[in-house]
Amino acid sequence: MIEDGRPIFVQIAEGIEASIIDGSLSEEERAPSTNELAAFHRINPATAAKGINALVDDGVLYKRRGVGMFVADGARAALLARRRQAFAAAYVDPLLAEARRLGLGPDDVAGLISERTAGTTRKEPS
Amino acid sequence: MSSVIEVQNLTKRYRETTALDDVSFTIEKDTIYGLLGRNGAGKTTAMSILTAQNFATSGQVRVFGATPFENPSVLSRMCFVRESQKYPDDATGRHALRMARLFFPRWDDDFATQLIEEFALPVDRRIKKLSRGQLSAVGVIIGLASRAEITFFDEPYLGLDAVARQLFYDRLLQDYADHPRTVVLSSHLIDEVAPLLERVLVIEQGQILLDEDTDALRGRAAAVVGDSAAVEGFVAGREVIYTESLGRVTSATVLGGLSEQDRQRLVAADLDVAPVSLQQLVVRLTRRAAESAPKHKELVP
């Protein structure tokens, strides 16, 4: 949900991006309108509009006149590529920093990752 | 964007105190403003002068391009919901709403009826006999249903419980989306109203401390937390508005936003970044202004 410490329009844009990535909002489907977003998140409609416009500028959404905003063709692949690039900075770097504090080297971390991966795959029904 | 209110060099002096000290600002059309600041900062004085319920000592106020004082064509387009609105002794809620319907050209009676039901206001009871929350509901209903082009809400929530306050925020946002207008909301519950505000005006000791887009402000402030020496090294040369320390850990709130390079430096120095809410930011800015003010006065011989 919306937190107060970061620009809300950024969080609105991220929320729509997440829906596109997880498939709950598919390409060529209508995106929520400014007023729907404002009512749902209880935020100023101008702020919601700013989030939508950021996605239009990015080519993720496009406007159909008189109908609303729609998810662009190819938006999911583009977002996935961007997310994968950001993955290292957002998850791997903090992981390595915490490991260093605990006296674990990169090899230890790699070992832990294989160990945990094996654990989770074993639990999954085949 | 065009402005609906223009204030230039406005000063208001009472016998001993200066409530507003040479302030200038504009209010944009169809925007929701938060007017924030401590008690006695000058918020109510400013709203009273803008709605011609009080006189300025000096300076210029223009609303819709005209002087509001004794100007019915301007006043009927503004609604001021005061925290301590006075009503005649024998008036009921129904009387107050009927007066409002006569006064405000864009009044929506169906909306008022809906709000009366939602706030469960006993409209035929004398206002004198209403609870504090019910009295606030009268003001909130008038403020919303009047659909005035400029509506001032001066701490409209006194005595309203959390459910009723949420109802007020929801109806305000919904009706604003359907009928855009200018709203100036003065509140101490900054955390609660922050998501509603497109712009914030912060007043402290009669002066404008901040006049900014709310979302831009959220992106501008961050707290840098970690080893005291490392924090001091990082914040050197930046605008620090607040610091607190616990043992060897320091948290410094900086303005100015953090670049990608800054973030890399922070990771390298093992420093964390914590978000700063609008409420924390306003409190820290106001405290800094209060602390620095007496020092300035000492410098004057």
Provide an overview of this structure:
The complex is a heterodimer of chains A (126) and B (301). With 126 residues, chain A is mainly alpha-helical. Chain A has helices spanning 8-21, 34-41, 45-57, 75-101, 106-123; strands at 61-64, 68-71. A two-stranded antiparallel sheet of chain A has the order 1-2. In chain A, a hairpin with a 3-residue loop joins β1 and β2 (68-71). In chain A, α1 (8-21) packs across α3 and α2 (34-41) crosses α3. The model of chain A has no long low-confidence stretch (mean pLDDT 90). Chain B has 301 residues and is of the alpha/beta class. Chain B has two domains: 3-216, P-loop containing nucleotide triphosphate hydrolases (Rossmann fold, 3-Layer(aba) Sandwich); 220-299, Alpha-Beta Plaits (2-Layer Sandwich), CATH 3.30.70. Helix content of chain B is 38%, strand content 28%. Chain B is built from eleven helices and 13 strands. In chain B, α4 (109-118) runs antiparallel to α5 (132-145). The longest helix of chain B is centred in the last third of the chain and has 22 residues, at 278-299. Chain B is globular, with a radius of gyration of 22 Å. Residues 295-301 of chain B have low confidence and may be disordered.
Summed up:
The complex is a heterodimer of chains A (126) and B (301). Chain A is mostly helical. Chain A contains five helices and two strands, in the order αααββαα.
Principal-axes geometry of chain A comes out as elongated
Helix share bin of chain B:
25-40%
CATH topology name of the largest domain in chain B? Rossmann fold
CATH superfamily of the largest domain in chain A: Winged helix-like DNA-binding domain superfamily/Winged helix DNA-binding domain
The largest inter-chain interface, given as chain pair and residues per side, is: A-B, 25 and 27 residues
Number of domains of chain B: 2
Mean pLDDT of chain A: 90
Main beta sheet of chain B: strand number and arrangement? 6 strands, mixed
Question: SS-based structural class of chain B?
Answer: alpha/beta
Uncertain stretches of 5 or more adjacent residues of chain A = none
Give the end-to-end Cα distance of chain A, rounded to a whole number of Å. 35 Å
Strand order of the largest sheet of chain B: 5-6-7-3-8-9
